[in-house]
Amino acid sequence: MAETKLSCFWHGPDLGTSARVAVSLHGHTNRSKESLRLIPQLARKGPMLHEALEKQCRKSRIPVDFSRAYWTPPLSPKLAYETERDQIENTLGLRAMVSLTDHDNIEAPVWLRSRCDSNTPISLEWSVPFAGTIFHLGVHNLPSGQAQATVQDLAAYTQNPNDVRLRELLGVLDEFPNVLVVFNHPLWTQSCVGVQRGPDDLDRFLSWAVQFLHAFEINAARGEKENQRVRELAAKWNRPLVSGGDRHGCEASGALNLTSAETFCEFVSEIRREQRSHVLLMPQYSEPLGIRTTRTLLDIIRNYPEYPMGSRRWDDRIFHPDENGGAARPISALWKAPPAYVEGILSCIRWLENAAVQRAVERVFRLGMVSESPCETAVEIVPEELVAIEAVSSEALG
User: Fold this and answer.
1) Is 382 exposed, middle or buried (0-12, 13-18, 19+ CB in 10 A)?
2) How far does Cα 222 stand from its chain's mean position?
3) Residues 237, 252: one domain?
4) Tens digits of per-residue pLDDT, 283-303?
5) pTM, two decimal places
6) CB 54 within 8 A of CB 229
């Protein structure tokens, strides 16, 4: 029977006497490619905004293709690793294990293993097409000698999905004794980036794949109501819960795992074989989701003059096919300067960095916030009937 202990830092860290390590799972670096399909999706919700976007696209000398355009998070692998490590060491006084999971590639952990921490797990977030929708799996701690070949196999499936091949690949991952496969944000429908999910798709996927999934994720970038439903889902399928920061900006993870394990392999064993987990929600998780999402947005559009050339400006981190429709290039290379209307919009958004404006926005969000304490739920996850899952909001950055 799976057992998950859930603690909230703001109620007292409750680290216990055995916890020596905190594990940060599911964080993104500038090696992740994040789709910009969100922009036309949002614009269609407002006729004036939609018309303004269409007008600007018509004026562009390069045909605008949001389906191929993408942005990358601001933090390099080194900065992302240090952000997670420093929170754990300075706030909790524990040793850190950091597993970074960029979308469908292992560039960040491979770089870190050669330059910063040779014990960094080789991990990624795998995009899994299934029955016309997409699920995301956190694949942690691939064996170094087989990691590249395995990632190529996973990528080949993503490009050409096949149910039989999916079962084969999940079986391969499960046969690696020290690999942890986590069902990331299982209830996020991703409709904001054009992904469609039918009412039965989740149950079909779990019926097909749950035997190869070792844990479900409490995602610190999603709302508490959604995470409560994930707890119910984990109970139905008798799986432990693990933390997932899903950081895309500069803030450290809002959820961590506590463990007495000396190595990441021992941590994996706790989850896979002993089916026990201790999740600690950090102070930022208690803030309204709208504030945390706004903070991430500000991180994404901020300029960082201290960063290396090529990643200092916001338009260095947004990519679009060139004028010939070829390989994606930073849009900073496709124009002499950002259009005035774009800078105007970003200037308005940056007003949110003003301390007085932030206080006002926080009051607004907190007035509408339902008081909930995830730490008051039962700490033992046991199988029980799952109520019907409502459509999940996808306004937050995923």
Assistant:
1) exposed
2) 9
3) yes
4) 999 998 888 998 999 999 999
5) 0.89
6) no
One domain, residues 42 and 187: no
Q: Does 192 map to a domain?
A: yes
**DSSP letter (8 states) at residue 116:** T
Full residue range of the structural domain in which residue 246 is found: 3-32+73-287
Q: What is the largest CA-CA distance in the chain?
A: 63
Condensed to tens digits (0 to 9), the pLDDT of residues 67-122 reads 899 999 999 999 999 999 999 999 999 999 999 999 999 999 999 999 988 999 99
User: What are the start-end ranges of the E strands in 21-112?
Assistant: 21-25, 34-35, 70-71, 95-99
pLDDT digits (tens, 9 = 90+) for 342-388: 888 888 888 888 888 878 877 777 766 555 556 644 333 333 322 22
Amino acid code (one letter) for 148: Q
Paired tokens of 209: 């794949």
Nearest Cα to Cα of residue 256 among 216, 220, 286, 290: 220
Of all helices (H) and strands (E), which one includes residue 320?
strand 318-321
Residue 390 belongs to a domain: no
Asked whether residue 198 is assigned to any structural domain, the reply reads yes
158/122 same-domain check: yes
